Task: structure prediction
Amino acid sequence: MVLTDDVLRNPFFCLRTGRKERKRAPDRVDESHSGPSIVGCVKAPARAGFFAERIVDGRDDGGQSERVLIWIERKPGATWAVGRMVNPQYRETESPRADDYLWEGHELEDCLEAANAALEDDAVVSEELGSPQSVKPFHRDELLKPLERFFFGRA
Result:
């Protein structure tokens, strides 16, 4: 009880605002604001959590050109994920589906191993089907830079 009496009698808490006339909100909204709200149209980019990605351009079993996107993503709950999407340019949305994920876990080294294994498999198949190419592997440093930027705001 004594503490509440001290706090209530403190001059800092006794200050009140002056008798200024406040601005009133308009009685009706301007006609220019009657259309649809922009908030409903805005969505976050589907690849916001992607930390690194590689594209392997090659051929499928039938000889048609094929593009394979392999990415490393940081998901909520401090989970790393490796995804693989075939011909993402033909999809209706850029958002990955549940069956696009190859691996999920908490260890960065395991994530890199899974991503580089998928990348190597696709590069080998592409080479066997007559479309050899060089794709650089995923490295720990390229994942740590965005992670540090996320946590500490630095590059």
